[in-house]
Specification:
Elements: H1 15-20, H2 23-45, E1 54-55, H3 58-65, H4 69-81, E2 85-89, E3 98-103, H5 105-109, H6 116-121, H7 188-191, H8 194-212, H9 216-229, H10 236-261, H11 268-287
Antiparallel strand pairs: 1-3, 2-3
């Protein structure tokens, strides 16, 4: 990807876990990761010790995630239940809403051992938002913590198609975190247009190959193919989401290539990778 393409900041998303989450939980996870990264960087800039905890009210989370008040509680409950986030409750709140949060990076990494295809396609791995409308429901953080793994999700109902999630009465503005072609519009005809479907198919194929290749040359070539693909993107928004997806996948693959080439000091491919990595890290350090 060319440096000139980076006109905006990125928030790295864990690929496997994100693939398992429904749209509401994806939105909340993205929000929490972005906040955690922001406060960590601020602590470092102020030479303070970062303990992982940050403050956000329910109203703040509504604004940043574009979820309703009830969906904020339900998604936090879901992420707490599977061990992705820890919370501390607001003692002054009538609803005992959490207002301090800590992202559990160790728990997130556990999802990397699973196959991405299973995370995308296997309904047993699906993580859907807690059904808060059910009579007697209460958030998981008000009871005993229920740490879970994908295998324990088998009791959850099969994930539903969330194509029109953004238009539901609870969450009319939640259209940012669906699949690439679903995030652009809530109108079914536009979502399922032939041009969008063809673009999405090509994007998915390239991303899947990126996740499998073991040579940096192949990975770099595929990144260039994605640069070429976005020239035909149906809109600016689609182009931006494609690059966000590429960014997240790139972040997840960097450790593999570092480990592969760090012991091969004379390998020209390894040298090329580390030259790219040095420039990439400097570029993103400036954008923080």
């Amino acid at each position: 990807m060319k440096k000139s393409e980076h006109k905006y900041q990125f928030t790295a998303m864990p690929v496997n876990l994100t693939a398992c989450l429904d749209n509401n939980c994806r939105s909340m996870l993205y929000t929490l990761l972005q906040l955690s990264s922001y406060y960590e960087n601020r602590c470092r800039a102020e030479n303070k010790v970062w303990d992982g905890w940050f403050f956000r009210s329910n109203a703040d989370l509504q604004a940043q995630s574009r979820l309703s008040e009830n969906l904020v509680r339900a998604t936090i409950s879901t992420l707490f239940r599977i061990g992705i986030v820890d919370v501390r409750l607001d003692s002054k709140s009538k609803n005992q809403s959490p207002n301090r949060f800590k992202v559990n990076e160790t728990a997130i990494l556990q999802w990397e051992k699973y196959n991405i295809e299973d995370c995308i396609k296997n309904p047993d791995y699906a993580i859907i938002t807690d059904q808060y409308r059910v009579t007697g429901w209460k958030p998981s953080y008000l009871g005993k913590s229920a740490k879970a793994s994908p295998q324990s999700q088998q009791t959850l109902p099969k994930i539903e198609d969330n194509t029109d999630n953004a238009a539901n009465e609870e969450n009319i503005d939640n259209n940012l975190f669906a699949g690439t072609h679903e995030r652009v519009s809530t109108k079914s005809k536009e979502i399922h247009s032939p041009a969008m479907a063809e673009y999405k198919q090509k994007e998915d194929a390239l991303m899947a190959r990126l996740n499998r290749v073991t040579s940096w040359l192949d990975f770099d070539k595929l990144r260039q193919e994605i640069d070429y693909l976005v020239k035909s993107s149906p809109s600016k928004q689609v182009k931006e989401f494609t690059y966000q997806r590429l960014q997240a996948l790139t972040v997840s693959r960097i450790p593999f290539f570092k480990k592969k080439y760090q012991t091969e000091t004379d390998n020209p491919i390894g040298k090329r990778f580390f030259n790219w990595l040095d420039a990439w890290e400097k570029l993103h350090a400036q954008s923080v």
